[in-house]
Amino acid sequence: MSTVFTDNKTDTIRWTGKSIPRKEDDRLLKGQGRFADDIRRHNEAHVYLLRSPYGHARIRSIDVSVANEAPGVIYILTGEEVAVLQKPFMEIAPPPGGLMEDYCLAVGKVHFMGEPVVAILAETEELGRDAADLIEIDYEPLPAVVDGQAALQAGAPLVHEEAGTNVVWHGVYDWGDIEGSIAKADKVVKIDRLHFHRFTSTPIECNAAVVEYYPGSGEYTFWCNNTMPQFAAMFMGPALGIPTDRLHFVTQDIGGSFGNKITTYVYLTICAILAKKSGRPVKWTEYRTDHILGGSHGNERTFSDIVVPVMADGTILGISAAAIDDAGAFPRYEPLGSVIWSQVVPNVYRFRDVRIDFTQVVTNKCPVGPNRGYSRLQHMWMVERVVDIVAQELHLDPVAVRKQNYILPEQMPYETPNGCVYDSGDYPRCLDMALELIDYPKWRERQQTARGTGKIIGIGIGSTLDSGTNNFGQARIINPQLPFSGNGEVSNVKLDLYGEVVVTIGTTPQGQGHETTAAQVVSDILGLHPDQVRVLIGHDNARNVYTGFSGTYASQFAVTGLGAVQGAAEKLRREIVQLAAGVLQADESEIALRDGSAFVQGQEERAIPFIGLANIVFANNATMPPGLDVSLNCTYTYRPPFKVPDVEKKFGNLTLTYSTQIHASVVEVDEETGQTTILDYAAVDDSGRLIHPQIVEGQVHGAAGLGIGAALYEALEYDEEGQLLTSNFYGYKAVTAIDVPMMKTAAIESPSPFSPNGAKGMGEGGGAPLHAICSALQDVMRQKSGAIIKDSYNPSERVYWLLQNAEKSRQGVSVEESGHGL
Amino acid sequence: MSNTPSVSRSVAVTVNGTTYQRDVAARTLLVHFLRENLNLTGTHFGCDTGHCGSCTVIANGKLIKSCMMLAVQADGAQIETVEGLAEPDGSLSPLQQAFSDAHALQCGFCTPGLMLASKYLLEHNPNPTEEEIRRGIKGNLCRCTGYVNIVRAIQNIAADSAEKGDLVK
Ligand code: FES
Ligand code: FES
Predict the structure, then answer these.
(1) Ligand nearest to the CA of residue B144, numbered in listed order
(2) A565 FRET partner, CA 20 to 30 A, in A117, A319, A485, A791?
(3) With pLDDT > 70 as the criterion, what percentage of chain A qualifies?
(4) Contacts of B109 in chain A (CB under 8 A)
């Protein structure tokens, strides 16, 4: 990876900015990591979940009498009892979405294939599964609705009768003057439909928990891998009728999440009820098939009636479209996705006039939840498709059209039409670097020489932003009643009794190396080696500090997490300096810190080690210099500078930082089979100041790997009855090492002027491979008969179909000569 | 009950050089035997169809997925797991070090399986091409790394041992 540094680092900064060995690695490489399923409690019992085989069906009856007598069965829980023990989970949406009732087990009917219907607690998981075979459930199958547009048709089956509609949320986003743009445009490009498909990240560690109930205090402990525990608590406390501080979450190593482990509160609630009922610690480890059936899918979105006013030179003036987002059977984290896309309304482009009519619906499919690139990648994919289709239909060069429309570095910070402030970045430079990495001119030549060989080469670009550090105030655009705004993380940095530096944070890392990067930041501030800093990772709301936002999601740790660590370490440094100055009888300005000691600059023999300072405060405080009030135990809450957005205008800064990801891909399509092979791939990122370049590059690789998978291999496909056809790794073709190329990477650093350290949140990646591969396939089609890539998922059979059916694919795509209004 | 095959058997399995004698239910999978009965939790469990590879171990010199074998089938077998990879003094083996140096692990959940697959690959093909490396680890899914740094780690260790002429540990 080549990194272009935009400024020089100072001498005192020794650790941040370097790719030091990760502190996490030693235990993980030795098999000594501690993951949720590794936790054991004495006398634990096991949960087995019997799930719905139907997409939509009424439950006529459940007979557990035989199963109750089966060996090892401790307790059997059904929806009937849940309806008494649990209040429906709170909904984020106002009505109609807010009327949809969500319980931890199906009550009355099943809404998707894989919905848990009966929970069996048994001495072993196998005995629970045996007992499940003895349960008789009489289902009355109902017609299912499995498509977002179909869900809106009159007479469509209702997923939730209690809501009277399948609509979760609807809103019109209208900024600038789209009609004016259409009137003054040279041309108007219309596209009837683009479809962003359903897929998911499926972390290799499934969901798991061990849950214990203490009757004496009424407290539940969840040793689990939920990645946003206080969000879970917010749903679970009211549902169980208990104060949320009785819910004690503990996480340690987590085997990936990518957002998929945020909405597990439904399962944790099942475990909580069983733990209290049985008086036993209960353990639940999800099967992969159950994870794919009933975990958390990515949002599927259909865009229709896309209208794009364009000038003859390729300047795009705006976009108007309708978006239908398919949330699956229950909203859960939704409808937040219905606003989160608006963090990146114009993507990386200058157009100012936008209208999106956004509707989110429920269908008889697995509920969605945040999934790497959450809600922004769908929107940016649409914008990137528009750019490529405009270029093709106007006979312009897609690279030139991008450059023509990019926001320029001299315009930074740039306010978007809806008030988001892009902090910094240089998109043209990132694109140039990506093109250089793949040797763009060479491939344009090869494209020519490949003509007539039966192989067609296509080159594509994906330009994206990775918006990070949410302003939770954007939730009010969905529901003005919600008491949320801003964001923040908290950290505690202290000297322990023997002078060790110990750091805690409220986050839930899943491979992002928080232990390492937090230690780098603290080391620079306290003059230590990272080996001298102990970072206790994981969320533990009985032991550690936390905020309501704590967790690891939405590309924000480098800003919120490290901002909190920095603040706490600086506080501790001030206290150490004060105390040392008192002890050493020097002026505070003369004190320096190095290697775990404080000393008087220029007179290094006048020194006191951290253990000496800790001794004074914790065990010898009659010797404390007079007039000092130090604790050596410092907590700091980082709070980004946000305002509450204007809910009426849907206007405001919705995220603090905007990393750039610009990808270039070269593909080869076999005309006879439609098979797509990636010949070259480059990813250029700009994540502001890099704390640990290797970790950032690793995130870029990972996001690219998942994106390539989604573009070519991975799809969650349902039949019309709501049967998931790809419910395990047979059907769901998670990318393997032979499916992804050795990608090339490069980075530039445009420091964020808004974050405490110049860094930007990153990791999600904006779905750039989906855009870049669709773009490359469009380039392939351009050379044949101009078929239009309308879907984000393009396996061989679809590419083959497109090669054969250009005319059909072009239906609904037109260029009109001048604007006539919408 | 006919569908509760809970008959227990006695097995003796040697894992990383230590022989364990245990009574296990006949249907216990080897992966669960390692994790639950022996508390060797470094071998992970990530799917129910034999696809993810996070349970990969070496049994009698063969690379296997321990979720695809019953513990009773491993009776008398020699098993190598992640817990046996480090040097006797506890320091990282060259293979483990190569994974760390190349940042070939993020969450680390797939890592034990991938290291066993890499070890097996390098023992049988000390100088694999990139293509051979990719084929050698295609039974192991990783969702964090895009495989880039895993392939690089294996390339690096192959180059290193080619230089030093030593056997891959
Ligand atoms: S657990 Fe997935 S292959 Fe064995
Ligand atoms: S490092 Fe997380 S799955 Fe491979």
Answers:
(1) 2
(2) A485
(3) 98
(4) 33, 35, 203-205, 255-256
